[in-house]
Task: inverse folding
């Protein structure tokens, strides 16, 4: 039977927060469009009413095609979760230019591409929600995070101004800023000294929050009545200081 709830689109859905969000929304009866580069991990998820697509979020054509495919089955995207991100950590002077550009492309361009794929249609329907995953790194800087800090600060600013410009059309923008979460985000950090220092801090917090904690927050903010917009949600482990 075709689900009655609206379509939810999630980027970076193959692991971490994206996967947890996909599983939670699917369990709640939502059809889900799951986008990630590792499509075999999406196909392996035991989720009903899913559409999977191999998508590099820096490629807007891939994202548009994926959304078009899912909407042909389940109707328009009512919730977009811009979750895909990378965090290669290093001191600015030591970080490769490729890692710098990739951090900006995935974390900023990926969000812009997602928004551009759904926002005009949401405005036309006078309904929709866009959740952009930022970070505490968008609120203050921290050692070995210069490019990541910059990318997430940009996401914060883009989200806030887009909310101001589109709220009259009944479209919500929700900025989620997690602190330390136990995911594989560290996989893109190759500097072992930097990684080791970060893991010491992470271990003090027993890994930090779980991915499902953030998924719960996304579901909660989305399921509130449409006239309620939690504009910004900063979430950390109780013991995390910054």
Result:
């Amino acid at each position: 039977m075709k689900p009655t709830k609206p379509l939810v689109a999630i980027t970076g859905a193959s692991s971490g927060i994206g996967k947890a969000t996909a599983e939670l929304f699917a369990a709640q009866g939502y059809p889900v469009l799951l986008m990630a580069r590792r499509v075999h991990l999406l196909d392996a998820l035991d989720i009903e009413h899913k559409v999977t697509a191999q998508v590099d979020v820096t490629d807007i054509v891939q994202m548009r095609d994926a959304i078009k495919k899912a909407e042909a089955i389940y109707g328009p995207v009512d919730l977009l979760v811009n979750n895909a991100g990378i965090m290669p950590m290093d001191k600015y002077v030591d970080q490769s230019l490729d890692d710098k550009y990739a951090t900006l492309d995935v974390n900023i361009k990926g969000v812009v591409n997602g928004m551009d794929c759904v926002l005009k249609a949401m405005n036309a329907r006078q309904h929709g929600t866009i959740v952009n995953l930022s970070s505490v790194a968008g609120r203050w800087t921290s050692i070995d995070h210069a490019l990541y800090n910059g990318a997430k600060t940009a996401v914060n600013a883009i989200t806030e101004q887009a909310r101001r410009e589109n709220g009259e059309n009944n479209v919500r923008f929700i900025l989620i800023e997690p602190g330390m979460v136990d995911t594989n985000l560290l996989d893109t950090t190759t500097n072992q000294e930097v990684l080791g220092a970060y893991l010491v801090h992470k271990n003090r917090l027993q890994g930090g929050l779980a991915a499902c904690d953030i998924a719960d927050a996304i579901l909660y903010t989305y399921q509130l009545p449409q006239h309620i917009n939690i504009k910004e949600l900063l979430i950390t482990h109780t013991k995390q200081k910054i």
Q: What stands out?
A: Residues 23 and 46 are 8 Å apart (CA to CA). The beta strands are 7-11, 32-36, 50-54, 77-82, 128-133, 171-178, 232-235. The two ends are 46 Å apart (CA to CA). The chain has a mean pLDDT of 94.
